[in-house]
Design brief:
Length: 368
Amino acid sequence: MTMRLFGLLAAASVGLSGTAFADTVKLGYQLPLTGETAQYGQDFRKAADIALAEFNKSGKPFTVEILFEDSRSDAKEGTTIARKFVDNKEIVGVLGDFTSGVSMAAAQVYKDAGMPQLSQTASHPDYTKISKYQFRNIATQAQEGPYNAKWMLSKGYKNIAIIAEQTDWGQSVGAGFTDTVKAGGGTIVFSEFFNRGLKDYRSLISKIERAKPDAIYTGFFYEDGAQFLKQVQQLGIKTPVYSTSAAYSPKLLELAGDAAEGVHLTSNFLPTDPSADVQHFVTEWKAKSDGAVPGQFPAQAYDAVRIMLAAVEKAYPNPTREKVRDALAETKDFPGVTGKTTFGPDREAQKELVKVEVKGGAFVPVAD
């Protein structure tokens, strides 16, 4: 072998081991793996592992590695992780975080560094306004609030009470919903925010009842939702309860029991959907979850990872951060388990919502 040929082969080998022509491409995923919201982050990681294993077994010319970091749903920690991911030049894109607040704090770092960020759950309307590098594959409260308001008004509910958790996300739950209710001739007769993890809702429920609403609109996740519904039942309250997709989880049914009966909410994932993709994911999830059925959030994480992987593949063999961002922006009709995803020019996912009611201890789609 001549020295010239040896040199060319050596240069090619170095190129293949670098970011531009890497055999392994790296992504970051910041999510809560400990703390009060750890159950969500652990589900996201499980969904990501399923998606990643499928991708790496599919015969691509490269593999992908995901580096997971625990944000504990803390904005300061999320920002620290973002700096760590940005400093790792091998990472070409990131996923997460869970809450809008942490996602938005980290987004400031990703914005300055030109790092594409795709959150599976950040639904605050301002998240994608931060920069061209923020994406999400979830319906926002700017979409979901008006949708639910019109649904409730169509059922004849004109006087509505709102309760939501005291977070940026909770505030956004009330904002979009309220404007549409008022525009439709309805009235918000009561509005209050509570701290996540509240154990006793009885005084809040009593205040709601004194306002005599036709229905109650809620912004909570399944743990708080289950606690609230059980206490509503204990107090003998019969006022209809509606909620956002954040409450859509088999855990809500498990924790609330028959107190969840009759609750209405929205979703873009139904594990009973007979489509091959959905049933494949449900089967894989059950195999790793002792037979438990996946909820909407794991499904969104599964799709988010697959969308990011598809963008990396499109950018290959030179998956720079900017090229991965551009590939994400070009996502159109991605066939996910939460429906097709297309990113608009504002990097918002154009999603279809499904109306759901709890009947006989199960989530059942309804027409109206």
